[in-house]
Design a protein that fits this description.
188 residues, 28% strand, 0% helix, Immunoglobulin-like, mainly beta
Length: 188
């Protein structure tokens, strides 16, 4: 399956977060597909996207913890048709009995890189913008930094998220919700 989106390497301090992309388009189109394999640190785990699980035939948002506390994100379109998803993603935490929405999080967006638009990293209304996701495509937005507060691209007001089970939720522009498989966030 082709990989779309640049594979980004973030420093442990998350100081330099940027891209050659201008980030100026309202409906950000994914970059052209490449046939080169992604480095091992950016590939989804063997269980992601899951097969044979309920809901695995649509959009699957996978998380894979990496060193330094961040979690790689990959969004897989397994629907067989082109889709449009909202830029704003959600994160849920398993509290031991049920899945609950994480509170205290800054924006977590489906985006190509961390380049600001008009000097702003997360612009007003950006979370409701639609992003094209072609059939069979995989988008790899910048990772969740494993934090609460600021959670993606920059960490000005943030602290480590609690250790535990999490999953990403992506919403289609038609309001359909797609919940990804769970992953374990280790202690920082």
């Amino acid at each position: 399956m082709a990989r779309l989106g640049p594979v980004l390497a973030f420093s442990a301090l998350f100081i330099a977060c940027g891209s050659s992309s201008s980030g100026g388009a309202r409906n950000e189109a994914p970059p052209p597909a490449t046939s080169a394999p992604a480095p091992p640190s950016a590939e989804a785990p063997a269980s992601c996207p899951p097969t044979g699980e309920s809901g695995a035939s649509g959009v699957v948002a996978c998380g894979r913890p990496r060193g330094g506390g961040d979690v790689a994100i990959s969004i897989h379109n397994q629907s067989g048709q082109d889709l449009r998803i909202r830029r704003g993603m959600f994160l849920e935490h398993f509290d031991g009995e049920r899945w609950i929405a994480m509170e205290g999080l800054g924006p977590l967006w489906v985006r190509v890189g961390c380049a600001p638009r008009d000097g702003v990293l997360f612009w007003g209304g950006g979370e409701t913008e639609c992003v094209d996701l072609a059939a069979g495509a995989v988008l790899e937005p910048p990772p969740w930094m494993g934090m609460v507060g600021d959670v993606q691209c920059a960490c000005e007001h943030c602290s480590p998220a609690p250790q535990g089970r999490y999953r990403f939720v992506v919403r289609g522009c038609d309001q359909q919700e797609y919940r990804g498989p769970s992953f374990e966030l280790p202690a920082h």
